[in-house]
Amino acid sequence: MAEAATARRSRITPEREAELYAAVLDLLREVGYEALTMDAIAARTKSSKATLYRQWGSKPELIARALRHNKPVSIADIDTGSLRGDLLEMANRSDDCQMERDAALMRSLFHVIHGNPELHQALRQLLIEPEITGLNALLRRAVDRGEVAPDNPALGFVIHMMVGGFVARDLIEDRTVDREFLRSYVDAVILPALGV
Predict the structure, then answer these.
(1) Residue range 69-79, pLDDT digits in tens
(2) Is the backbone of residue 178 left (phi > 0), alpha (psi -120 to 50) or beta?
(3) pLDDT in tens, 165-193
């Protein structure tokens, strides 16, 4: 499926693809997922609806790819030589304003996911699983360096701790996560749980 998707998208330049993804996310923020149509995306991006379907196959795939493209940090690319350094680098590469915008967008999508298996699958495949894979590689390097015990039970819950931090801050403090919070959270919660 990945090869077919790549072949479908190969006719669009990277610049045009970035423009289109930005427009899709802007529309998504304006009207929400349910009201967002491929017709509206086509009009906003001056594309044909047929081109959008040919390139992305479906609205959920287009949304998921736009969100993936918008991610400021690829966890797989981070390797500072220490777990703390890697986790702090993740926080440092993030932009507070962008995190706030993305958090609002993800909150709205989480409501939709439960009733939309196609969107849920697209987000899992294109957004969530690559992040989990990157985080697992980062944690494996920490185990290989001897920073974390290989049998530490918290290793399987790091992604849960990270997502939990995002959700809890918004729920408890009515504030979105920012870099300062992420750095503190890494030092106070994640590293101690891993025995670092």
Answers:
(1) 877 567 878 99
(2) beta
(3) 888 888 888 888 888 999 999 999 999 99
